Amino acid sequence: MIRSIVVASCLSICAMGTAQADITVSDAWVRASLPQQRATGAFMTISAGAHGARLVGARSTVAAVTEVHEMKLVDNIARMGRVEAVDVGPGQVVELKPGSYHIMLMELKQPVQVGDTVELELIFEQGGATRSVPVTAVARPLTGAPMKRHH
Ligand SMILES: [Cu+2]
User: Fold this and answer.
1) How far is the CA of 36 from the centre of ligand 1 (A)?
2) CA 104 to centroid of ligand 1, rounded, Å
3) How far apart are the CA of 103 and the centre of ligand 1, in A?
């Protein structure tokens, strides 16, 4: 009973992140797309509390296909592809950021413009259960995204 009250009050107070069973997502943003661009990326900071969790998928309303991706340098060429999961260990903080892990939004239904808010749903596995965590990401310019944002 007490636990459910705590969760409910956090849901109403936490503006940009959502806490659910210790999974916290913060600083979520989406890279604004160009008019002809069919895909873009979403980035955020994830922590999973004392038990850890695995990010295994994502959904969004703006794209027909939403996947968890990793970008790597292979022979100095940036390559990216889908990954099965991103492990967020107990007490760990994992940053989804340009050049690394990201949420790939593909087959965009319309361009994502600076200032737009994009609703995402992150799918986690934790202790054998699947949890979905809603995230609101704000669209930022294609270039010149700051490395660190302060609230
Ligand atoms: Cu990608």
Assistant:
1) 17
2) 5
3) 7
What the chain holds in terms of domains, given with CATH numbers, is 2-140 (2.60.40.1890)
Ligand 1 centroid from CA 13, angstroms: 32
Residue with tokens 């969004």: 60
Among 57, 44, 49, 60, residue whose Cα is nearest residue 10 = 49
96: exposed, middle or buried (C-beta count within 10 Å: 0-12, 13-18, 19+)?
buried
pTM of the predicted model as reported, rounded to 2 decimal places? 0.79
Which pLDDT tens digits describe the chain residue by residue (151 residues)? 455 544 444 444 443 444 446 899 999 999 999 988 999 999 999 999 899 999 999 999 999 999 999 999 999 998 999 999 999 999 999 999 999 999 999 999 999 999 999 999 999 999 899 999 999 999 999 775 444 444 4
H or E segment and range at residue 82: strand 77-82
> How far is 38 from 67, CA to CA, in rounded Å?
14
Q: 101 C-alpha vs ligand 1 centroid, how far in Å?
A: 8
Strand partners, 88: 53
